[in-house]
Specification:
By secondary structure, this protein is of the alpha/beta class. The chain has twelve helices and 18 strands. Strands 1, 11, 12, 13, 14, 15, 16, 17 and 18 form a nine-stranded mixed beta sheet that branches. An eight-stranded parallel β-barrel has the order 2-3-4-5-6-8-9-10, surrounded by six helices.
């Protein structure tokens, strides 16, 4: 999306504003499917938690994607978007048995990640096929908050507890139809991913009737010029060879699954915000915008990097700024960034804002959540209205 287009959208829809480019989503989807084109059965399940607007889900449905969901609400969004239940996998963590049972009634693939629930579910519903989420004890991910496959993680059943899984399966007579792992987000080292995959193969061969192996995702995307990212093509070549050999040894053509979120939508999104004030202190020049971590929490939560560009003054001389928000506590998007001179009323663009940005937005400080716009086949569409004061109070009850 070029500068003039983004400025036009900010003028048309006001700011702050999220903008998504479906062409970029399509390109990323085709990139990963091409990387694994030599596997007979490949299924990409988009991770709904990254960006859950129903219009984005419809884009993935048109690409013949499946969905990876982590809540019953995400499952219902997928069904509302038109997905067939068999194209949805449900991988919760720490939810009640009741929620899992309610989801099972909807006909989607169940993925269980703890022994207690596995045994309870197997005792009550041995006829429902279940996938098992394994914790491979591999430390991977760009931040401790998004590294989920290590030994101290709350996610998955330890590889050392596979004998317990086998005992539960034998005692309940339940059918295990898939094996799954997810090590974390922002995985850069292909070798680390392949090492975890070997562990998953070792587990999978102990189950004789599986239909698929789900390798999760967590592929790293570039956040700035010159940044490095997961070499998905190299991973495709190496994992394809290993997976096809495993299927041959297993005696069955299994389905290879992935559940990318950030890889598919991060680079498709931009976040536009207007500069409210330039504030010079004794040591810093702050550019305060009409937003805060209530709209884009990743820099404060994960110390994540979002490249920031001044769309309004692309030829201005470069100066150093700290970009901050209007939330009433430390609220920094970027410190000491070299940006073309910023003036009040200028529009700033935050890149890589497609994944885990709007989906983690809140009404903190009683602020409204922003609008969302989708660029699709050359046209812009408002896909979520900006909130109003009525939205803030609509579920509140006056009792005194």
């Amino acid at each position: 999306m070029n500068r003039e287009l983004l400025l036009g959208l900010a003028k048309k829809y006001d700011s702050p504003l999220y903008v998504y480019d479906t062409e970029k989503i399509k390109n990323q989807y085709n990139r990963i499917t091409s990387a694994f084109s030599k596997v007979k059965n490949v299924k990409i399940n988009y991770a709904v938690k990254a960006l859950s607007n129903i219009n984005i889900l419809k884009v993935f449905k048109n690409l013949h994607s499946g969905l990876d969901t982590v809540s019953i609400q995400e499952v219902k969004l997928g069904l509302l978007a038109g997905f067939n239940p068999i194209d949805i996998i449900y991988t919760p963590n720490g939810v009640s048995l009741k929620e899992i049972e309610d989801v099972a009634k909807l006909g989607v693939q169940i993925n269980i990640d703890n022994l207690s629930i596995l045994e309870l579910f197997g005792q009550k519903h041995p006829e429902i096929p279940v996938c098992i989420r394994i914790n491979p004890h591999i430390m991977a991910g760009g931040n401790s908050n998004i590294s989920v496959g290590h030994i101290d993680s709350k996610f998955g059943i330890s590889i050392h507890q596979v004998p317990h899984i086998l005992r539960v399966v034998e005692n309940t007579g339940m059918h295990i139809n898939g094996i799954h792992m997810h090590t974390g987000s922002d995985i850069l080292d292909v070798d680390t991913f392949l090492m975890a995959s070997e562990i998953l193969f070792d587990v999978a061969k102990q189950f004789k009737e599986i239909d698929f192996i789900d390798f999760g995702s967590g592929f790293k995307v570039p956040y700035k010029e010159g940044d490095i990212s997961t070499n998905i093509e190299d991973l495709g070549k190496q994992l394809t060879k290993r997976f096809n050999n495993f299927c041959k040894d297993y005696g069955k053509d299994l389905t290879l699954m992935f559940e990318p979120g950030k890889f598919l939508v991060s680079e498709a999104g931009c976040f536009l915000a207007k500069v409210n004030v330039i504030k010079q202190t004794t040591s810093t020049v702050f550019a305060g915008i009409d937003s805060g971590f209530n709209h884009l929490i990743r820099p404060m939560l994960y110390n994540s990097y979002h490249h920031i560009e001044n769309l309004s003054n692309p030829k201005g001389r470069e100066r150093f700024y700290s970009i901050v928000g209007y939330i009433c506590e430390t609220d920094t998007f970027g410190s000491n960034r070299r940006i073309h001179e910023i003036r009040e009323e200028d529009i700033l663009c935050f890149y890589n804002a497609g994944a885990y940005c709007y989906s983690m937005a809140s009404n903190y400080n009683s602020r409204y959540r922003p609008a969302e716009v989708m660029m699709h086949e050359g046209k812009d569409y408002l896909i979520r209205k900006r909130e109003t004061f009525d939205d803030i109070i609509k579920n509140q009850e006056l009792v005194i």
